Amino acid sequence: MIDTTSAPSPVRTGPLRIALIAHDGKKGEMVMLAAEFADFLKTCTLVATGTTGARLHAEVGLEVERMLSGPHGGDLQIGARLAVGGVDAVVFLRDPMTPQPHEPDINALVRACDVHNVPCATNVSSARLLLTAIQLPRT
Ligand SMILES: O=C(CO)COP(=O)(O)O
C-alpha cells in the first residue's frame, strides 16, 4: 500500500513529463489547449496516445512520444509508465457524451492517477489550471 501521508519525495530535476490524451470529440480542444501552452509544453517531455500525439505534432509542432492509439492499449501503456513514476501530470480530455469501446482502459488510467497521486485534468478548464500551476518554480 502506498503511504500518502509521508513527506513528498525529493524534487526531481529535469523536464516535466506530461501525458496528453484526448478522445476524438475533444481533439480539437486539445490542439487549441496545446497551442495556448506550446511554449511551456516544448520544455516538457511529452507522451500521448497515438492519434492525439500525431495531431499535436502535425498541428502544434510538439515533439511527442506516441503510444498506441487509445482503443488499442495506449491508455494502458501510459498508465503503466505512470505507475512506476514516469509521468508527472496527465491531461486527459475525455468525451463524456460518447461511449468508448475501451472504457475499462480509460478508467484504469484515471484510477492509476488516483492511486499514485498524479494530477489528472479531464477537461479544458482544469487542464488550464494544471498547466499554469505546474509551471511555477518547484521548491
Ligand atoms: O482513445 C483515446 C484515449 O482513451 C485516445 O486515443 P487516440 O489519441 O489514439 O485517439
From TrEMBL:
Entries under Gene3D superfamilies matching the protein: Methylglyoxal synthase-like domain
Class of enzymatic activity (EC top level): lyase
Superkingdom: Bacteria
Keywords, in A-Z order: Lyase
Record-annotated MGS-like domain positions: 7-139
SUPFAM superfamilies: Methylglyoxal synthase-like (SSF52335)
SMART domains (UniProt xref): MGS (SM00851)
Reaction(s) the record says it catalyses: dihydroxyacetone phosphate = methylglyoxal + phosphate
Active site per the UniProt annotation: D75 (proton donor/acceptor)
InterPro entries, sorted: Methylgl_synth, MGS-like_dom, MGS-like_dom_sf
GO MF entries: methylglyoxal synthase activity
Pfam families on file: MGS
Amino acids binding substrate: H23, K27, T49, G50, T51, T52, S69, G70, H102
EC number: 4.2.3.3
Family recorded in the similarity comment: Belongs to the methylglyoxal synthase family.
PANTHER family: METHYLGLYOXAL SYNTHASE (PTHR30492)
Function: Catalyzes the formation of methylglyoxal from dihydroxyacetone phosphate.
Database matches in NCBIfam families: MGSA (TIGR00160), PRK05234.1 (NF003559)
UniProt protein name: Methylglyoxal synthase
Species name: Roseateles amylovorans
Lineage summary: Bacteria, Pseudomonadati, Pseudomonadota, Betaproteobacteria, Burkholderiales
